[in-house]
Structures are given as structure tokens and as C-alpha cells.
Task: structure prediction
Amino acid sequence: MNTLTRLTNPTSNHIPVMLNEAIEGLNVQRGGRYVDCTLGGGGHAASILEESSPGGQLLGIDADPAAISAARERLREYRRDLILVNDNFKKVERICTAYGFRPVHGILFDLGMSSLQLEDSSRGFSFQRDAPLDMRFSPDQKLTAADVVNTFSERELADLIFQYGEEPRSRVIARHIVRKRPVVSTLQLAKIIERAVGERGRIHPATRTFQALRIAVNEELDNLKLALEQSVNLLGFGGRLVVISFHSLEDRVVKVFMQQQARGCICPPDIPECVCGRAPTLRVITRKPVTPGEAEVEANPRSRSAKMRVAERV
Ligand SMILES: C[S@@+](CC[C@H](N)C(=O)[O-])C[C@H]1O[C@@H](n2cnc3c(N)ncnc32)[C@H](O)[C@@H]1O
Result:
């Protein structure tokens, strides 16, 4: 299938990002066994199954039951080669073990939220649609964005917006939010931030705060670290780990993880001789992250901040 056919698949309005690069990064082989930790609408999964057939198998995980339903529909022609699991990828090793699905040839993470989630006006991910402040990937999670916004202290809120949103105006934003509590909807929050920050630059003033809330609600960075550690144990030798991230915090986690695993030794630099005895588990394939080409960014603006890193099990 060529890129254009893949991009215009009519069964899903989520366009998979860096699809060809991900398939190449995974080095998808006929008859291979793959894990898609972020199934979403099943766009990457469909290509993995197509490229690995006949005989390929895929285990797809998503925390969001709506994503699992969408992917089940999209991937129905591959149902015999498919295992779908509605769970958090922080349990990927346990999940694969439970299904006897290890070792595997490749593991994919395409992080963040899908267009299906962003455009669903009941989910609260977008500051352009009015919705309750939810932002949970899974309805089983307890904490919502409304809980964070309405119960955290001004200081905690400011720190969170600064740390996860890399928002330089976090203190002002937090002060305005606390003054206007309770804040119950996305548009209400977006307006408070607009008033707090004033100007409109290249990006909407609420972008960074919304990102921060989503990361906090879904514990995105912690879950990613847990899943990356486990992925190494699941990959067979020569198996590929491919991670597509959408902001610098995620990319840093992936980069540091891959570098550490490639180095092996975790002794402090001032120790003259290695005492940890750890051997490298990964070889980094992409020294620099791969980014989407101009044509893709034009066709799918959501891809503009994507960065893909690939490593191979050694
Ligand atoms: C960018 S979308 C993936 C899109 C997919 N690659 C496609 O082509 O349709 C990311 C998906 O990962 C899911 N997700 C994010 N964090 C997760 C986690 N910790 N555990 C399981 N699923 C997660 C989200 O619910 C979302 O559906």
C-alpha cells in the first residue's frame, strides 16, 4: 500500500503519523510478532499486520475502550492474527506473558492522544470544544483534569503546569485558575488562561496548560518509563523498539532510556571500574530522532511535532 492510500483510509479519522518510517523502523517481517502499545484507531496496526502477513501476529493495547472498539472494526479482516487488550501499557510485560506472546519482533509506541479522542467532545482533551474537564484515556482512572484544577494548591498547579507544560507563565495561570474555581469545562479553563496570559502567539495560550493536565491525569511519563523497561525483556534478539513522541518531555525520556540501555553500565562516572556488571541491551539505530517530511506535515499538521526513535535488542 502506498503512503497516500494509507493516509486516506476512510474507516478512521486518525491519520497514523510517520507510518512508513515506523514500519521500516520496526523492520516488519513476514510471519513476525508485534506489539502495538498504543493501538488508537489501529492505523499503524493495520500496516504492521499487512506487511507481516501471512503469518504475522499483533497484540494491540489501548487504555481507551473506544479505541479498542474502533480498532476491532478497522482490523476485522486480520481478527485471526490479532489480540486486543483494553489496559494500560504500563503492564505490557504481564499482558504479553498472559497471552504467551513473547518474545516479539517489534514493539511500537505512538504516544499521546488520537484524533478520535481529541475530536470527541465528551472527553475534554480539546480547548476548542466545550466539554467537562476529563482528559482520562481510560474511564477506570480516578483522577480527572477537573480534580487537578479544583483541588491542587496554587503552588502545586503552577509547578505542574511548568513541569509538564514547560509553560513560562505557569504562576500567573495558576493564580487565575485558583481565583475562578470551580472550573468545570474546557472552554471556561481556556478563557481563564487567555485572560491570564493576554496575548495570542503562534500557539493558543492554553496549549501548554492542557498538555500539562493531560500528562498529569494519565501519568504519561511514569507509565512510559515503566513500559520501556519492560519492552526490553519482551524483545527477542534483533527485535526493534520504535517510539514516536510528540513533545520534548517524552522524547527526553525515550532518548535517555535508549542511551542508558545501549551503554549498559550504570556506575557513576567517577568510579574507575564498573561494579554494576550490566551489559548493553539495546543498540540505538537512530542517533538523531527521525521527523516527518514536509509533505506529511502539510497533509497532517498533527504530525508536525513528531519525533521517532528506534533501537534494536542486542
Ligand atoms: C496517538 S494514539 C495512537 C494512534 C494509532 N497509532 C493509530 O495509528 O491509530 C495514542 C493512543 O494511545 C493510547 N494510550 C496512551 N497512553 C496509554 C497507556 N499508558 N496505556 C494504554 N494506552 C495508552 C491512547 O488512548 C490513544 O488511543
Observations:
- The CA atoms of residues 134 and 144 lie 5 Å apart.
- The radius of gyration is 20 Å.
- The first strand starts at residue 33 and ends at 36.
- Strands lie at 33-36, 57-62, 82-86, 104-110, 235-245, 282-284, 307-313.
